[in-house]
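Q: Okay, next protein. This is Nif11 domain-containing protein from Thiorhodovibrio winogradskyi. I've checked the sequence twice, so it should be correct. Can you predict the 3D structure?
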Amino acid sequence: MPATDTTSLYQSFPHLREIDKLWGTRDARDFIKTLMNDSREGARLGFSLEHASTLFALLIEHDEQFPQFDDSRDFNLGNESGGLAND
């Protein structure tokens, strides 16, 4: 279970309690990342700043507790070396 306070998030979005069930797995990280991205071709309204901050805190907490599932180091910004592209 995460230490991040999810009370308000779960009150507003009860189905997100799934995060607690998945906590400690790659699926938890993937689920949180999915929530943070628009997968509805612009139709997603997004979360309030409070809830978006909670989701971000959950992602950070999960990465700290379970670094084996953190794939953010593999992020490529557009060039072969993985660094920023020069203009």
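A: Here is a summary of the prediction. The mean pLDDT is 85. The chain has one domain: 7-70.
Q: Noted. On to the next one.
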